[in-house]
Amino acid sequence: MSIRVHQLAKELGVTSKELIEKLHGLKVEVKGHMSSLDDDTAVLVKEELDGAKPAEEKKKPKTKKTAAAKVKADTVPEPEEEKKAEDDGLKLLKIDLPVTVKDLAVKLQAKPNELIKKLLSRKILVTINQSLNEEAAGSIAKDFGYKIEQLPTQEEELIAGYEEKEDPAKLVPRAPIVTFMGHVDHGKTSLLDMIRKTKVVDKEAGGITQHIGAYEVSLPKGKVTFLDTPGHAAFTAMRARGANVTDIVVLVVAADDGVMPQTIEAIDHARAAEVPIVVAINKIDKKNINIDKLKKQLAELNLMSEDWGGKTIAARVSAKTGEGIDELLELLLLEAEMLELRANPDQPASGAVVEAELSKGKGSIATVLVSKGTLKIGDIVIIGLNYGRIKAMFDDKGRRVQEAGPSKPVEILGLSGVPLAGEKFYTVSDEKKVREIIAMRRLKAEKKKLENQVQKITLEGLYDRIKEGEVKELKIILKADVQGSLEAIKDSLEKLSTQDVKLSVIHYQVGNINESDVMLASASNTIILGFHVSMTPDGKALSKQEGVDIRIYNIIYEAVDDVKAAMEGMLEPIIEEVFLGRADVRQVFKVSKVGIVAGCYISKGLIPRNATCKLIRDNEVVFKGKISSLKHLKDDIKEAKEGYECGISLSYKDIKKGDIIEAIEVTKVARRLK
Ligand code: GDP
Questions:
Q1: How far is the C-alpha of 500 from the C-alpha of 517, rounded, in Å?
Q2: How far apart are alpha carbons 352 and 217 in whole angstroms?
Q3: CB half-sphere exposure, 180, CA atoms < 13 A
Q4: Which of 90, 119, 222, 657 allows an S-S link to 124, with CB 3.0 to 4.6 Å?
């Protein structure tokens, strides 16, 4: 006989989570609320809880090792106490980070040289004017008896002024927010539709449901909120903008198809976001399916189902017949209970945008999910670079509502513009302050645009960031043409981990580098290494926009060597010029308002409008810079192809007949160690 953790918890009148903690205290290793306990263990736990003995670690009895309960080694340190000691002895120092060595020295009333020496002993080599991040500065400050804390930015101060302190007594359970992910055609949309049709339909409103990007399902035991944009692309795009709204990912796998490439992608995306996964084995109505085979595949991906002794909850469902859907919903509620999802409804609201659009007549409409507090008509909200007073709110059935509490999806009207999915919102009380915050954010956004390339992790910048203690883990996404290479590179890369930096491959798969890889890289700040693969056009465009470092190799050891060199600071970029096209200058005109125009014939390749070019005369480069205009007759054109004529202007005026204009692409290439 055995009993599930959640059943025993119910019997004992405690939550599953409390029981699991208790079991861990007893050194009984259970994986989750669906794990089974054998009778011996159950009796022991019951005694323990009834006896209500003080929680003294040393006196606790050890259970014998049974099938369901493994005894864990008794070596776990107690981090809590260590933290207290640290808090006690240290004085608090609030500073603006990053801080230069010089400024930190002043604050610590120490000599800069002393600091530099101490940093050196930690293998951090800096000069007096270099900046230290929180970690490095914090570790030095500790030597001088201080604990540092980042001063709030002006914006944070403004926002903090409106947000109340979290009061644990006011927290109440909230509905889990669930996203469906999985391979195409495995039934994500069908499941969402089936759930909506059978569970959301409002009988009074005549069965009409509204598509607003998310919907809520009410069950006897609680509510579940579903995000209506299935798939990991949307999920990760939201995360890249800062909103990790999903509490649980339901991984949909079709029983007749099994694990497919996008199943693996979805798993990696969910794991990178640290969101728990519940598996829905779909299409169980079909004939000739082999669920055991599927479970084996899942186990190989570290998603061992609980009936096989793992901790992954796997529900069997059919979006066609509706079978198993109620069980799936219940499991989601159980999982939510485990996650202890709570929020205080009694405070100014904040949350995130799920989707938004501009509607004719209504203006900007945004579907938002409240994460805490209660959103009310008349509230002033700030979302990214937009704000507004809420004029009206609608729920997922298209009904007008006056307010929306935690996890409730609503459509809001009244914003100044259309926000982006994934942007966070706050309610604020003072419209003037809102404008100040927006102005500040605009400035910051501009600055960030400029810094975008610098902030993202790149192989070239890696060493400096390791040195400054900024990077402790280099995350990599790996794509290759065949499975064998993937495994080989992954192993070699992970072996490069040192004491200072850990290398981890967070996603690896056979195939070209696509948009979804780039989005994951951007959201998780990783680099992408490709081996014998190319990039999809969408992926390429997105990588430029997001500033993700992507490198493609043809030889395994070159990839591994580059990463190694980057970690050791031996990888300086070299500038490489790629020839794009050549234009022969046949005539030079002076055109009023435009200035000097070179009438050219494209003798080779292509001249793009925004290319960099070299003006060559007698085999010497006399000018190098951007093209300022490219025309065909009187029209501006995007590019001029081989065999065509065009007019080119440069910021350089001294162009002569017989000159050559060469268009080039300038790229930074990693220097290779030989
Ligand atoms: P998505 O790409 O993951 O959103 O998949 P869809 O929901 O569009 O489903 C793909 C196809 O599988 C459609 O033709 C559905 O009708 C079918 N399908 C989805 N769920 C089931 C199911 O449980 N049983 C059967 N027999 N077919 C299903």
A1: 26
A2: 19
A3: 32
A4: 119
Write down the pLDDT at residue 61.
39
State the amino acid at position 660 in one-letter form: I
Token reading at 54: 């003080």
The model's pLDDT over 426-453, given as tens digits with 9 standing for 90+, comes to: 888 778 878 877 877 776 666 555 544 4
Q: According to DSSP H, which parts of 196-315 are helical?
A: 232-240, 261-272, 291-300
Minimum-distance ligand 1 atom for the alpha carbon of 183: 3
Is pLDDT at 214 greater than 80 in this prediction? yes
AA letter at 636: D
Q: When comparing pLDDT for 662 and 462, which is higher? A: 662
Return the bridge partners of 535, or none: 513
Which ligand 1 atom is at minimum distance from the Cα of 186? 3
Strand partners, 480: 510, 531
**What pLDDT digit, counting tens, does each position of 487-514 carry?**
888 988 888 888 777 888 999 999 999 9
Tell me the CA–centroid distance for residue 312 and ligand 1, in Å: 23
Is residue 302 classed as helix, strand or coil in its secondary structure?
Answer: coil
Q: How far is the CA of 169 from the centre of ligand 1 (A)?
A: 44
Ligand 1 pocket: which of 185, 193, 253, 328 to mutate (most atoms <8 Å of CB)?
185
Tell me how far apart the alpha carbons of residues 124 and 143 are, in angstroms, rounded to a whole number.
Answer: 15
Domains of the chain from N-terminus onward: 2-58 (1.10.10.2480), 62-151 (no CATH), 175-340 (3.40.50.300), 350-450 (2.40.30.10), 462-570 (3.40.50.10050), 574-669 (2.40.30.10)
Q: From the CA of 427, how far away is ligand 1's center (Å)?
A: 40
CA 73 vs CA 62, 63, 70, 77, 273: distances in Å: 11, 12, 10, 11, 29
Span 519-541, average pLDDT? 89
Residue 232 beta carbon below 6 angstroms from any ligand 1 atom: no
Residue 140 CA: distances (Å) to CA of 82, 115, 116: 18, 7, 10
Answer whether 170 contacts ligand 1 (Cβ < 6 A).
no
Which residues sit opposite 310 in a β-bridge? Answer: none
**Ranges assigned E (strand) in 532-651:** 550-553, 573-591, 595-608, 612-617, 620-632, 635-636, 639-641, 645-650
Helix, strand and coil content of the chain, in percent to the nearest 5, comes to 35, 30, 35
